[in-house]
Amino acid sequence: MNPTAIGPRVSTHVLDTATGRPAAGVLVRLEHLDGAQVRLLAEAETDASGRIADLVEGGIRPGWYRLSYDPRAYLRDLPRGPRFLGRVMIEFEAQAGEHHYHLPLLLAPYAATVYRGS
Q1: Structural domain includes residue 51
Q2: pLDDT at 60
Q3: Nearest CA to 71 among 115, 32, 23?
Q4: What single DSSP character describes residue 107?
Q5: To the nearest 10°, the Cα dihedral for 29, 50, 95, 87?
Q6: Which residues in the chain show pLDDT less than 70?
Q7: Which residues on adjacent β-strands are paired with residue 71?
Q8: Strand partners, 63
Q9: Label partner for 64 (CA 20 to 30 A): which of 48, 89, 99, 103?
Q10: CA geometry: angle at 30 spanning 41 and 99, to 5°?
């Protein structure tokens, strides 16, 4: 971890479980939730390997966050059937003392799962 970091890093990885390949070009947003206030911290697209290695340079502080994935453009470009999913969101609490939150998304035509990875 960067010695000047304020807290844990946040990374993600999007995998298309229908094709067994990474999902490139999926828009991902990270927002800080503070009561009624929502502040956008980062917005990026997954790279060719379906990854975003570090969403917020310097890390995040303890508190509540929303990570949202927008796979619509990715799904639209695939030659398979009707589209179903819009945004996929997870809210999580960052704890003091943690070093890294890796939150992969497993994407399928009619389902999505986000979990805390390593």
Answers
A1: yes
A2: 95
A3: 23
A4: E
A5: 40
A6: 1-5, 80-82
A7: none
A8: 94
A9: 48
A10: 90
CATH number (domain holding residue 13): 2.60.40.180
- CA-CA distance, 72 to 30, in Å (whole number)? 17
- Counted residue by residue, the chain has a size of 118
> Minimal CA–CA distance to 85: which of 3, 16, 10?
16
The domain containing residue 81 runs over which residues?
Answer: 9-114
Domain count, the chain: 1
Q: Is residue 55 part of a domain?
A: yes
DSSP 53: S
* Residue 1 falls inside a structural domain: no
What is the C-alpha to C-alpha distance for residues 116 and 50, in angstroms, rounded to an integer?
16
Domain contains 46: yes
> Pick from 63, 58, 61: which is nearest to 5 by CA?
58
The answer to whether residues 86 and 68 touch, using CB atoms and an 8 Å cutoff, is no
